[in-house]
Amino acid sequence: MADAKLQANVFNDYDYMKDDSIDPELKCPLCTLPFQSPVASATCGHTFCQVCISQWMTRQATCPICRTMTSAKEFRPISTRIVLNQLERLLVRCKRCNQANIQRGDIHEHEKRCPNQTVSCPAFDIKCKWKGARSALTQHIQECPFQKIRPAIDDIYEHLKNIYEPLVDELQTVRQQLEKQMQRTNDQNHFLLAVFNKGKPMTNQCSGQTRNCQLQPSIQIETRSQRMQKQNNPFQEQLNFQQVNQAFSRLVDQSAKTISPENKFSCTNCQCGVNPQDIVLHHCEGGGICRSCLETYGSLESHEKIFANKP
């Protein structure tokens, strides 16, 4: 839509030659001029300029010719090459320089060389405000004070660019590091709040004050397996390291088989469902932290020290 409006503004500076001889089928029923960015209704097939029908649709949702109910989204661009070629070959005259017999499809090329086209000074980027006809541009450039000091400005710009670009890159790197550190700090704070558990801090042991701790069986199995690995009885001395590991794995597997999906626990920090044996910190009245979160955000010893120092 924006491109169609820009093209319509360009055509304001041109007149059609032999307008009476132009086929009426190539003219918009609304503006009565040759189509610009023609679109056709998918409902009734009538064709209009895109800008014209868009303005019409802001007032009423009907076809201007047959009054069929429609909407702006029902209009599709015309892609028939024969029609578009006929429109592009129409002859126009430039109102600024009076050059005639310009094919409509060549208007943009004419804009680049029209002597009366309004242009800006090449030094507009360094605050020269001059605007005038293209035919006067050469004379202006010879007299423009901004153009005369451009070489010095370009040298200064390059010098400053070489100084500040490394600083900008370094600042960007520092910013990214700070953002990562802030995210890490936020995650750790969230983890500590989860461990503190609204005044009921979690540990790796049952408090003994609650008989219905759902994690107590898995904790007993974990403690039992740890003791089995530490014992130095004659039977264990005859087992190699691989056999000990296999025995421990079978013990863990047996405990896991007794846990149904419905009995999975949710980690208070990451909200992920985990098996009870993967909860390493908990409070018997509710709340638990999974092994993954503890390994990511801290160690068991550090959290024990934190809560040991609390009054």
From TrEMBL:
Endpoints of the signal sequence: none
InterPro entries membership: Znf_RING (IPR001841), Znf_RING/FYVE/PHD (IPR013083), Znf_RING_CS (IPR017907), Znf_TRAF (IPR001293)
TRAF-type zinc finger locations on the chain: 110-145
Coiled coil: 168-195
Gene Ontology molecular-function annotations: zinc ion binding
PANTHER family linked: TNF RECEPTOR ASSOCIATED FACTOR, TNF RECEPTOR-ASSOCIATED FACTOR 4
Name recorded for this polypeptide: RING-type domain-containing protein
Natural source organism: Rotaria magnacalcarata
Species classification: Eukaryota, Metazoa, Spiralia, Gnathifera, Rotifera
